[in-house]
Design goal:
- By secondary structure, the chain is of the alpha+beta class.
- The protein has a single domain (2-104), classed as Aspartate Aminotransferase, domain 1.
- The chain contains three helices and five strands, in the order αβββββαα.
- The termini are far apart.
Length: 108
């Protein structure tokens, strides 16, 4: 399944990340605390497919143009196949999101 493979990539890329299931919102959040600013990304499964959303996605470098959406803050990647889970571009987005979190929280 795409979601399980993507979960493994997230957990491998984001060291010690907290995985939180939000049943009512039908998503899984990956964060380093309870504040919204500590959110890195979310998995959003649906009947249409799987999306990986990024907090402050509008500010992430995206040279491969994976990010979609028109929100003021968040952006997402629609996961269409298993190969996409292992793509260097997707892993780079996760790493950029982690770097942005560290800067936001002044951890560097």
């Amino acid at each position: 399944m795409r979601s399980i493979a993507l979960r493994e990539v997230i957990l491998d890329t984001l060291p010690n990340v907290i995985e939180q299931l939000d049943v009512s919102a039908k998503m899984v959040a990956y964060c380093y605390g309870q504040k919204y600013a500590e959110l890195i990304c979310i998995l959003i499964p649906s009947k249409k497919g799987l999306k990986l959303g990024f907090y402050n996605g509008v500010d992430l470098p995206d040279p491969s143009h994976l990010l979609e959406g028109t929100g003021k803050i968040s952006r997402y990647v629609e996961i269409k196949n298993e190969e996409q889970n292992q793509s260097p571009a997707l892993k780079a987005l996760l790493e950029s999101a982690l770097e942005a979190y560290r800067k936001r929280m002044k951890l560097q």
